[in-house]
Amino acid sequence: MKFFASVIALLAVFAAASPSLQAQKTTRGDYILEYKDIAIRQMEISGIPASIILAQACLESGDGNSTLALKGNNHFGIKCHEWKGKSIYHDDDLKNECFRKYSKAEESFKDHSDFLRFRDRYSFLFDLDPKDYKGWAYGLKQAGYATNPQYAQLLIGIIEEYRLYRYDSLATDIPPSPAEIEISTRIHPTKGSPLYKISLYREVFTQNNTAYIIANEYDTYSSLAREYNLFTKEVLRFNDLEHDRKIEQGTIVYVERKKKQSAKHLDKHVFEEGETMYGLSQRFGIRLKYLYKYNNLHIGMEPQPGEIINLRKVKK
Hints:
Blueprint: H1 2-17, H2 28-46, H3 50-61, H4 67-72, E1 87-90, E2 97-100, H5 105-117, H6 133-142, H7 151-161, H8 165-168, H9 178-182, E3 185-187, H10 196-201, E4 204-207, E5 210-214, H11 221-227, H12 232-238, E6 252-254, E7 268-270, H13 277-284, H14 288-294, E8 308-310
Antiparallel strand pairs: 1-2, 3-4, 4-5, 5-6, 7-8
Helix pairs in contact: 2-3, 2-5, 3-7, 6-7, 11-12
């Protein structure tokens, strides 16, 4: 019996030492090859450099070997934050914290892209050259993405060691930046246009292809209606209001009916502290009832900070 016990113990030692008999960790090179196509696709959808996406994924997931990546397909360590899907609990800054769990890794990459593209504090990054991986790396650190003081250098080190910048050149049809889409445009209506008279008195702008003016503290919706040859109820309806109210300096007042959804490539927005659904409807030129509809919220409800708000109809 002692002989057999010794043989079994010896086999156990060999099994533990033999690479062929134990689970192998994914190497960084293999991880990059496995997920490069997803990163390139996300660059085409979001405008985030594929090199940055891959380098962040390598760091955050331990090259795909982390518990969150293996058990939850969560390659970027994204925590729940009003998450309505499945979750996984893991020790991080605090014990047993809630992290998002995905059915496949690609969902994690998409969520990461949405997190950056539709959050105001990262919007300046999308004005950079999409191949400027160094600008993106330092910009992420500047925006507070990570607390590690060497975070930018770590990303750049991975990108340059594995030449991840070559994947940035493989992306096509990169979308314009959120700021570029959202920027208001001043218009100069021609004679015969319903807005021509308005433009003689005030500057007229467009947001989401809908005309608006910037009101002052002396205006009322009734006085604006008279000025623009509209009914007061029309102006109120254009601005999702039921009753006339005091107008503060700088208030956006639409003089045309807002659209049912936001401009193309501006699909979502990460709700921030102090924002309101009404404020978003005015900011993006979307009718308020549709904004509630796209997010399955009852009229009057307000999302929690950090929650992703759909600005366009969600495709099934």
